[in-house]
Amino acid sequence: MICFEMLAGGALSLGLLYIALSPRFATSLYRSFLFYPADYPKGKYDLDNLEGIAPENIFFTAADGTKLHGWFFRQTQAAKTILFHHGNAANLTSRLGLIQLQLRAGASVFIYDYRGFGRSEGKPDIHGICADGCAAFDYLVNQSGIPTCEIINYGESLGAAVACQVSVVRMSGGLILQSSFSSLQRIGKEVLPWLLIYPPSLFPLPAMDNISIVRGAHPPLLILHGSKDTVILCRHSRELSSQASPPYTFVELPEANHNDLPIVEPERYLIALQQFLLSLESQMKCPTYPGDSSHCVL
């Protein structure tokens, strides 16, 4: 009887440990695998301008009160504004090459840092960074007066999942996914094989299942990925494009890896972005916007 009780107690302890160490509950453990923030003043914060446009320092607040920081490169004649949800490393100052090309394409650009990155307060987690994306969208609409149909959610790497999540709860004029994974669960299991022991129910929410989002209704979609990407293999974006509902365009950049796109493929990238922006000009009507960050249910 004592031996049985010991075995039962051991099994229960192992079961509790299994759950406690899952991605859904051990958020502090997995934070170091998922986020690589650089806080202020690390980075090029002394930037004067890009393409002759000085960045406006913008401070805004997430729904839970977290103070966030962004840069707004405003072009007065721009028909579209790119809301840039960046990847999981460094901070907004490390995306200058991409921002420069986006400005050359004719868009205004608002890039912000998630909580725990750069000058933004707090610590990052999956739910928090998605809420931050909604707060950035709401800033553009409520404080800058930009119509929703003029906002393009642009997500890079992990930020592509944020862009997808925001696109579900905020109607916008377009969606661009660069170097995206098909789902957080899939890329997590590729990078950390021990996660194969966990079912979907023990992964964090929101699920960041990009492929499910692009299968459904979405704004006009552009998917970009480097063929030589060794961080998130291009097959993720190929799968996204093979299952996406229209309208969408997939552009594979044959010479690009994960972080060198503006260096090795600037011309192809710029042409793809310009053509996408031009295609959006046919949109005539802005969707209704709820106008309240409390609607951001993630």
Describe the structure.
The structure is a single chain. The chain is of the alpha/beta class and 298 residues long. The protein has a single domain (2-295), classed as 3-Layer(aba) Sandwich (Rossmann fold). Helix content is 36%, strand content 17%. The protein contains ten helices and ten strands. The protein has helices at residues 2-20, 27-34, 96-104, 126-143, 158-169, 184-191, 210-215, 235-243, 261-264, 266-280, and strands spanning 36-37, 56-61, 67-73, 81-85, 89-90, 108-112, 151-156, 174-178, 221-226, 248-253. The strands form two sheets. An eight-stranded mixed β-sheet has the order 2-3-6-4-7-8-9-10, sandwiched between helices. It has a two-stranded parallel sheet with strand order 1-5. Helix 4 (126-143) crosses helix 5. The termini are far apart. The model is unreliable at 287-298 (pLDDT under 50).
Predict the CATH topology: Rossmann fold
Query: Architecture in CATH?
Result: 3-Layer(aba) Sandwich
Helix and strand string, N-terminal first? Answer: HHEEEEEHEHEHEHHEHEHH
Superfamily (CATH H level) name? Alpha/Beta hydrolase fold, catalytic domain
Radius of gyration: 20 Å
Level of helix content?
A: 25-40%
Number of beta-strand segments: 10
The CATH C-level class name: Alpha Beta
Q: How many domains?
A: 1
Shape: globular
Major sheet: arrangement of strands? 2-3-6-4-7-8-9-10
| SS-based class | alpha/beta
Low-confidence stretches: 287-298
What portion of residues belong to β-strands?
15-25%
- Mean pLDDT across the residues is 91
Number of helical segments with 4 or more residues: 10
